[in-house]
Amino acid sequence: MVPPKAAAKAGLTYFIEIFIAIEVTEGWIGSQKEKPSLSAISDRLIYYAINDA
Question: Where are the domains of the chain?
């Protein structure tokens, strides 16, 4: 996947497809007893992208 020009110019690289990030996040939040913090959600998504994607 080629990043948008503005992202490439800023030195940003591909991380994960948006639809996959949404599915992973919604599924994980739904499996938790309490709503996780934004930090916990970010950590889980990064973990997924590195280890499971």
Answer: 5-51
